[in-house]
Amino acid sequence: MDEPKKIALALPFIDADATDYLAEVVNENWVTSGGPAVTKFENQLQEFLYTEREVVALNSGTAALHLALKLAGVQSGDFVLCQTMSFVASSNPIAYLGAIPVFIDSERSTYNLAPENVEEAIEWCLKQNKKPAALVAVHSFGIPCQMEEIAKLCKDYEIPLIEDAAESLGSRYKDQSCGLFGDYGILSFNGNKIITTGGGGALICKDAQKAEEARHLARQAKSATTGFEHDAVGFNYAMPGLNAALGLSQLQTLKERIQKKRELHQFYLECFTEIEEVEVLSVQNEEYYANYWLTVIRFTGSDSTRNPEQFQVFLAEKGIESRFPWKPLHLQEIYTKQHYFGAQHAETLWKTGLCLPSGCGLTKEDLNRIQQAINAYFSG
Ligand SMILES: *Cc1c(COP(=O)(O)O)cnc(C)c1O
After folding, report:
1. Does residue 127 carry a catalytic annotation?
2. Which of its termini does the chain have fewer beta carbons within 10 Å around, N or C?
3. pTM (2 d.p.)
4. Second CATH level (architecture) for the domain 17-251
5. Cα gap 264→355, rounded to integer Å
6. Where in the chain is the domain with CATH 3.40.640.10?
7. In terms of DSSP H, where are the helices of the chain?
8. Where, residue-wise, is CATH 3.90.1150.10 in the chain?
9. What's the gap in Å between 169 CA and the centre of ligand 1?
10. 9, 83, 103, 167: which to mutate for ligand 1, most atoms within 8 A of CB?
11. How far apart, in whole angstroms, are the C-alpha atoms of residue 73 and residue 163?
12. What residue's CA is closest to ligand 1, atom 6?
């Protein structure tokens, strides 16, 4: 018997006309950084987000976060508050700058930053006579943070707010897009994000002057003069036109992609309604509109015979890929010496959670196979 087709967690989803967009930049020789495709991509992102804020296209989300922290004034030795339930790219740029991450637990409802632990961490930093130089809030798995409370804390204590919206393009909180609440917002377009440019990212700046600085720093801080004069230690972070062209093709279907992710999420909610030992991470509240980049389930029962590790193996045998949620950053070997505020919510999610296939290319047949696998596992 033939092996069944493998169902991946989230493959890049390429539109049929993508090659037209790519052919155009190749034929016009606009493949490298700068050029009309990059500007067009930035403008279309701005339109999609309904914002006047400048959007700077870069070659990764990590680069965007690095620039955001730098522009926020983060320096070596500073404390930077950071959500622990995230991919390591949320905190690595803090380390690039020689700053010290202070990790914060998640709240039970969204599994993003717990506001009371944010305040606790700020107070602790103040006691060390070092006000945090920035806060990095992450909308993990496409579910928005409690941005109002977090933004208020940042305002009250005058701490620059950076939103890591890498996974949440198209998600909204109280009708405002993720990425627009803070002083800076970052997006990622790597292979498995909701849209991809092959690799890439963007920085959204509240202050237009800062966006100018970002563009400058992203191009080795080359002065406007004719020679090779550089007025700062810059970076090679600009997005090439080739990548922007793929991004332009992807943006045409962004609304459908979000719709598809939300339908998949609904599908999983229905799959698990009768299964009491599993909770689907979901925000059923009008204030939140999530893109559900990845749907995550959590085993809530103490039934030791069924658990995420075993379910993952069961799914893999049926050719279905799944993945554990991020290992909390404060538990990573590279960050265990840092400070941490909170309880074990993030750790519990890591230990009891599983991300299920959430790619935009999943077919009805794929969903049937997934549903059958879920039913077989939980009825066994
Ligand atoms: C993907 C991701 C990033 C990094 O983006 P790259 O484009 O891969 O550098 C940052 N933060 C989070 C939360 C992400 O999921």
Report:
1. no
2. N
3. 0.97
4. 3-Layer(aba) Sandwich (3.40)
5. 12
6. 17-251
7. 18-27, 36-48, 61-71, 92-96, 115-127, 147-156, 208-218, 241-251, 254-272, 308-317, 345-352, 364-379
8. 254-379
9. 12
10. 167
11. 16
12. 61
CATH architecture of 254-379: Alpha-Beta Complex (3.90)
Q: What would you measure as the largest C-alpha separation in the chain, in angstroms?
A: 72
Q: How far does the centroid of ligand 1 lie from the alpha carbon of residue 190, in Å?
A: 7
Residue nearest to atom 14 of ligand 1 (CA): 166
Rg (the chain; Cα; Å):
21
202-258 pLDDT tens trace = 999 999 999 999 999 999 999 887 788 899 999 999 999 999 999 999 999 999 999
The residue written with tokens 């229905």 in the block is: 270
Catalytic residue among 70, 193, 210, 260: 193
For 318-350, write each residue's pLDDT tens digit: 999 999 999 999 999 999 889 999 999 999 999
Edge-first strand order for the sheet with 184-188 is 54-58, 201-205, 184-188, 161-164, 134-138, 79-83, 100-104, 339-341
Residues with CB under 6 A from ligand 1: 60-62, 86-87, 89-90, 138, 164, 166-167, 188, 190, 201
